[in-house]
Write a structure and sequence with these properties.
- The chain is 75% helix and 0% strand.
- The chain is elongated.
- With 102 residues, it is mainly alpha-helical.
- α1 runs antiparallel to α2 and α2 packs antiparallel against α3.
- It is built from three helices and no strands.
- The chain has one domain: Orthogonal Bundle (Helix Hairpins).
């Protein structure tokens, strides 16, 4: 049995679903970021799979590298914000972050 495009797309859909579930169901900021990373990784898997099976040559790989760089920058900024929130409130509950307006 050969692994085809459908197999990659199913795995990517599962990763995306787990990421959305992690974002929607969690109150912890770190777990929300992990869900976001799962969503970005599912997009990367799609880029690479379509690049391999549909003949997009290098464009899928370039898009994947761009998403990886974007994810690294997002994690650096988000973790800095989360550390700042933890210093002020001693928790990282997403529902309590609206106190920052005060």
């Amino acid at each position: 049995m050969e692994i085809g495009l459908t197999h990659y797309l199913v795995v990517s859909a599962l990763l995306f679903s787990l990421g959305v579930f992690g974002i929607v169901s969690r109150k912890n900021s770190i777990l929300v970021l992990m869900g976001l990373e799962l969503i970005l990784n599912s997009a990367n898997l799609n880029f690479i799979a379509f690049s391999k099976f549909k003949g997009l040559n290098i464009e899928g790989h370039i898009a994947t590298l761009f998403v990886i760089v974007l994810a690294a920058a997002e994690v650096a900024v988000a973790l800095a914000i989360i550390l700042n929130i933890y210093q002020h409130y001693h928790h990282i509950d997403v529902d309590e972050i609206n106190k920052l307006k005060e």
